[in-house]
Amino acid sequence: MTATVSLVVLLVVLGSSIAVAAGMVLVGLILNGFYSPMPLTRMMGELAWATSSNFILTAIPFYIMFGEILLRSGIAERMYNAMTQWLSWLPGGLMHSNVGSCALFGSVSGSSVATAATIGVVAMGEIDKHKYNERLFLGTLAAGGTLGILIPPSINMIIYGVMTDTSVPKLYLAGFIPGFILTVLFSLTVLIACIWKPHWGGEKIETSWQERWRTLPDLLPPTVLLLIVVGAIFFGLATATESAAVGILGALAIAGWRRRITLQMLREVCEGTVRTTALVMAILVGAFFLNVVIQTIGLTQQLGQLIREYQLTPVQVLGAVILLYLVLGTFMEELSMMISTIPITTPLILQAGYDPVWFGILLVLLIQTAMISPPFGINLFVIHGLRGRGTLSDVEIGSAPFVIALLVIIALICAYPEIVMWAPRVFG
Amino acid sequence: MQRLQALAETISRGGAIVGGAMLLIAAIVICLDIFLRYAFSLTVGGADDLSGYALAIASAWGFSAALLTRSHIRIDTVYVRVRSRAARAALDVLSLLAFALFATLVAWHGWGVFYQSYVSDSHSQSAIEMPLVFPQGLWFAGLAFLAAVALLLLARAIVAWSRSDLEGLFRMIGSKSALEEAKEEVVAVEHGLEAEHKQ
User: Fold this and answer.
1) pTM score, two decimals?
2) Beta-carbon separation of B199 and A259 below 8 A
């Protein structure tokens, strides 16, 4: 009962377009008033301070800043151009570069929207030049952009880790293999489409080994930086926060080497970083308050009881949660969807006996699906906004095959949890 | 009141830039810490605390920057389907009211945290033993500023509402559409590319 009430109140408050951070506090206050005699607002100060000075969470602004520097220094554009030289021989040509660049840039930037926007800006001009099937091309950009939150380092995983007391390094380890498989699946989708309908793949781009070697310096520095940032976490040499700090310095070094550091750029980087960080932190402060209220009113135990009462099998619980996210994802903004539901769904899943690391990866995959499924997928909007012509449904149709690819990998990790759990067990 | 808001915008931008600079410095300190640890097996300590403080202060000041640029995330699925402009304006005011409540609540209890540290002279637990009143003072200042900005915006919105100046109200506190946000992201990227081509 309480669970249903909580969820309904949450959806009504957030649905009335109240800012998500304030909305969650409001829901917390309402639930507190109804179900607990203790005024929990007194904890608000301590909670806000503890949340926003949490060392693990400092990885969030660091990754945002890391992405901002790469974004504002043209590193990504050069990387994309180099990638086109190296991947153009595949049927579907540039579309593989789209996926590949998104995987690479996404893995260092930690944000899906920034990834889709960055690669999208550079790639968009190529559709007409090489006569690609426009819809599929747009689909690769929207879908490729979502790889940013699956391939470590991912801000979403840090948030999940901190909110559910799950080890962030383990989540990162768990994200590598599914991230790799999904990248291959996306590329395979393009490949199959272009073998089926060869004219979708556009004209072949002429290139030579000489040209490839010439562009290597544009591809290598970000790749090496990525290997350092990700490798340090993978082998346990540094925490997520530390590796992000190294990433910032590395990105500044590359930008400096290309003479791209100006005072104005630094100022923009600082301002952009703080604004994005603030909106994430505001939601987190709200979510932690709601989390405390939910725990105090005994919602977690009630959920467990509910499962026992109805004798739900773990698979049924999982199915219900997956369905919930697929439905929520069609109309909710992704970050707030994740943060506002974690306090309710994670205990439910854990009660059913699933591993928190495994569920973290599943959750990210579900959010990725939400990002490119109509009618409300943020990446669809980003790509459509970049394009400046045609209709939104072009992007939606183009993304559809990739939604299928995502559903395939979701089914895969449900059937074979080892895909996720192998790396954290062996390396963790 | 317009001048007051312009002043608030200047202050919050300044706060955001300083906050970002603190984060950048924290990142450099952490890198130094790693370097010393691997090169000389030296542990200095305190870098964790400092970056945590930088995050708290930067967020507190960033809250108002995000509020003034209408960047706080709102679920606008229903909002964009509401045809009546008056009803939309009502939703905007309601949202801001809730946000002002959130801001005042956090600032009010944030003062409690700061005051407690001042009375009991708390220090951080790490090697640097920093008196907590410094980071918490800057943090609380950011929160107090946020509450002030939220109340100022609320006052302005109500004035605009009573004059039926809905356009002005939407410009101040309207929900940004996803498309608008996407466009901003694009402008930022293109800005970076332009600079690249200028060379």
Assistant:
1) 0.86
2) yes
